[in-house]
């Protein structure tokens, strides 16, 4: 069978299965917004960490990543909100400390 015909058959099977060959977990609006807030927090933390002295920057970025990974399996929306507020407070403190040090 030609590759083109095989691809055509695969597409037919995918269409019969609901149009997608990959199962995607749909997020409700609240979960979508929380996910966006977590990603924004992560970007902000990395941006502030980039201002740290070069010798501390790598370790700081690694600890930020570890903290995010540690909580990545959390599905409790209330806990996620708490972790976001805690994270915002921590990066605010880091930002202020770096400002005081002149970084």
Describe this structure in words.
This protein is elongated. The model is unreliable at 1-17 (pLDDT under 50). The chain has a domain at 54-102. The chain has helices at 3-16, 29-49, 54-70, 77-101. It contains 4 helices and no strands. Helices cover 75% and strands 0% of the residues. The chain is mainly α. One of its GO terms (cellular component) is mitochondrion. Residues 37-92 form the Complex 1 LYR protein domain.
SSE diagram, text form:
Elements: H1 3-16, H2 29-49, H3 54-70, H4 77-101
Helix pairs in contact: 2-3, 2-4
Organism: Brassica campestris (Field mustard)
Domain Complex 1 LYR protein: 37-92
Function: Involved in efficient integration of the N-module into mitochondrial respiratory chain complex I.
Give a summary of the structure in a few sentences.
It holds the Pfam family Complex1_LYR. It is found in: Mitochondrion. With 103 residues, the chain is mainly α.
Distance between the termini: 64 Å
Instruction: Give a short account of the largest sheet.
Output: none
Rounded radius of gyration (Å): 21 Å
Return the string of H and E elements: HHHH
Helix/strand class: mainly alpha
Proportion in β-strands: under 5%
Residue share in helix = over 70%
Q: Which term fits the overall shape?
A: elongated
């Amino acid at each position: 069978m030609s590759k083109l015909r095989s691809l055509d058959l695969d597409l037919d099977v995918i269409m019969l299965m609901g149009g997608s060959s990959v199962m995607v977990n749909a997020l409700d609006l609240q979960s979508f917004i929380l996910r966006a807030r977590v990603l924004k927090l992560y970007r902000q933390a990395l941006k502030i960490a980039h201002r740290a002295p070069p010798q501390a920057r790598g370790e700081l970025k690694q600890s930020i990543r570890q903290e995010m990974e540690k909580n990545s399996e959390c599905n409790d929306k209330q806990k996620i909100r708490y972790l976001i507020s805690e994270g915002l407070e921590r990066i605010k403190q880091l930002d202020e400390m770096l400002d005081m040090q002149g970084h």
